[in-house]
Amino acid sequence: MNARTTTLPPCTSCGEEPGDGARFCENCGADLAAQGAALPEAAPDAERERPTEEVTAPTTPAAPTAPVCRACGGTIADDGYCELCGEPAGNERDHWTEQPAPWVAGACDIGRRHRRNEDAMALAADPEPGRFAALVVCDGVSSAPDSDLASLAAARAARDVLAEGRPDGSTPVTGTTSERMGTWSALLSAAALAANEAIVETVGDKAHRDDPPSCTFVAAVVDGPLVVAGWIGDSRAYWLPDDGPGRQLSVDDSWAEEMVAQGMSREQADASPQAHAITRWLGPDAHDLTARTAPTVPSGPGWLVVCSDGLWNYCPGADDLGGLVRTTAEATGGEPAPLAAELVRWANAQGGRDNITVTLARFDNLLMNLPPTPETADEAPTTPTDPRS
Amino acid sequence: MAEFTAEVFQNEFLSEGGTDVHAIVTVTCTGAGTAGGAGAGGGVAEIIMVDTSGSMSGRNIESAKHAAQVAVDQILDGTWFAIIGGSHVANRAFPYPNARVSMVQMEPGARDEAKRAISMMTPGGGTAMSTWLRLAAQLFDSVPQATQRHAILLTDGKNESEARGMLTKAVRDVTGQFQCDARGVGSRWQVDELREISTALLGSVGLIADPSEIAADFEALMRASMARGVASADLRVWAPQGAQVLFVRQVAPTVEDLTNRRVEVNALSGAYPTGSWGDESRDYHVAVRVGSKPVGSEQLAARVQLAVGGEVVSSGLVKAKWSDDETLTTRINPEVAHYTGQAELAAVIQEGLAAKASGDEATATVKLGRAVQLAQQTGNDEATSRLRKVVDIDSEEQGTVRLKRNTSTLDEMALDTASTKTTRVRR
After folding, report:
1. CATH topology of domain B337-420
2. d(CA A247, CA A386)
3. What are the chain A neighbours of B241 within 8 Å (beta carbons)?
4. Residue B226: pLDDT above 70?
5. Cβ contact, residue pair B299, A112, below 8 Å
């Protein structure tokens, strides 16, 4: 588990103790910002995620930094509008960013057309680049009301399960590369189940509606040179190497993919009106909670991208997304936080028809050797292999 | 301690592709206190400039002297003051020319002595108002501790002893150094000359038809000045990056275009000097052009603020929201409509009278007809009654009028002088 140094007061709606960096009550989904809780920003996040000896609450919390404009990156003034471009600050649930470590960042945004942000994300990372990260994205089903509550609860629950396997977690994942692949795949399945339980717990009576709150699930874990993705639904994970073609790690649980699997042509499947309908999801009425998983071992520097369809709908192909990420990263200086923000801005510029979530992990120097842990003495692969290729 | 509030009236909804945002911002000051009173930053200084040219001989000079004495009675103890007699040159009447100080602080002895000095003023010579303004600025300069500086200027004639450019240059040179209310008595002075002075020096221009009315006017002016407990304030307008401030206009109690008085605060904010404040309300019309955004978007189009001593004391937010709901976007805000009409009213009155003076009766008829129509639409009955003295009205609704023959110069000047006075929206 992450070191908890929160000093946020309990939720005034239900009395729940807010979690680490919580913007919304994890129990009832109430807006903690509106309750007057100071919201930690990106920098304090990174600080907090670092394991420290001091796990008791500090007497003086980090001074809250002024909120940042979602449109131009300027400062939001006390009157609730950007000091530079006049953009309204909006609701914290509508737009927020996370950066648990300098090499891992995400942005979650309402987009331009939807009235609610039903996307959610939850990130965890080790300060040492490439050592450990968990990126979770859940996309609430917009036809089911209150799916914003479901997605946030699910993403956080899943992240917390995955964080148990981090090197300083409660049950660190150890062993050879293939053993780790198996363990992480199992943890991803467990994370999906935990996410579903969190949804059921969060939505309470809403579970009995005809259209109970529900969401997709996609997560990717970085462990040394290993990346393992797991998903239910059509939110996606991509590996985009700096050199060479990008790859979509996940395979959508969508009507189109099922038809293709049954032999229909890709063109015919994609052209169908229900092509994008998802066939699996999380929620009280979910019929299949088994996350599909895919491990990979990247062979060079690049970007791990876990995102919702608010981004990939504008750029579905892995190569197209790879090109977009490469040029955008060059323009923004190669850091994950500004890159995530810029990709959200780009998707909004394309129309922002859906909620947009982009989470990123940057690999510069791949940890070719597995991190030394006391229990393991396994052989690091000298030539990285990709089991999928 | 003075308190300011800013209230915004606008229709924030724009249709798809809409870019121009209009708002009326009412700034209200309460608890201003008295000039130089508790809470005021510095001292107060007053100068009375009385025309002592040869044309003033007779009732005018006697009435003006009486009025100046009445005004002196209104100046609060402790206020720095001086009296200037102006002709083709400017003379300091009080403190006496041989005094070593340029201004003195009011106290009972000084008040009596000043009144005596005023009684000894005698008419003679021409009129060169640039010299009056420059001497006033020089006297104010001698009391840097007085941060609130106000003057009254009274004349009865044209600025005939110097080129027009001399006055313009002097006005430009003293702008920002003191505020000045300008008054013309009778019908032989030039409205445009005094308006140039009062506009630049953040004061009012007024016509006094009969010399017997000067005293009451001076008394009111000085009393108002003494009730302005806030020495100086700026209107600040912030507009977002890439936006353009189309205009900033005071629209009540009078119309004054402030657009070109902008002093940059930073890349996105400009300050517009508004002079001193008493307990009062002023309305401002701010128009900003922003980049169009998709339907459903919202953005802040302007922050309209009042700053005292460089510190923002009140702020109003002007917003833009793009909508495809025509019932929202086509609604015209009554305040904006009212003051747009009042600003046009001021302009067409001035243009109509100028056309009439130059013999262009066709233009004068059209402009003054439009003025009659606007005065009716915006409920400015005072303007209507002044217009009636210059034109015969066939239809107020249509704005059809005929120019009156043999109108009195005084009536035309009264219409011109008061053209910028506005009525408030009936809320």
Report:
1. Four Helix Bundle (Hemerythrin (Met), subunit A) (1.20.120)
2. 12
3. 72, 84-85
4. yes
5. no
